[in-house]
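User: Could you go from structure to sequence for me? I need the amino acid at each position, not a summary. Structure tokens:
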């Protein structure tokens, strides 16, 4: 399993546009083969901070996701809404114990 944490900080007042774009991307991504879960979380202490938490069955499934039209559209449509560069962390998920 592959775990992805993507941290996003938005410019003030852009959250509605961001959430509209994210909703479309989330809906389509959840239909993709190999997607285990794909969720968006908002920081309750800073309404401009969001985090995508994703799990993929394989590295190949994640790579295929990053080539989809909806992923490209989301990136293009939200790039100017961000106050900081997107931070992405990718981990190999393994059971311990």
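Assistant: Here is the amino acid at each position, in order:
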């Amino acid at each position: 399993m592959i775990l992805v944490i993507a941290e996003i900080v938005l410019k003030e007042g852009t959250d509605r546009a961001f959430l509209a774009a994210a909703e479309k991307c989330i809906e389509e991504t959840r239909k993709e083969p190999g997607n285990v879960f794909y969720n968006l979380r908002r920081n309750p202490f800073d309404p401009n901070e969001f985090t995508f938490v994703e799990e993929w069955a394989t590295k190949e499934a994640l790579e295929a996701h990053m080539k989809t039209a909806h992923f490209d559209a989301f990136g293009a449509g939200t790039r100017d809404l961000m106050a900081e560069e997107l931070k992405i962390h990718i981990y190999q998920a393994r059971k311990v114990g």
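One structural detail worth keeping in mind: The chain has a mean pLDDT of 95.
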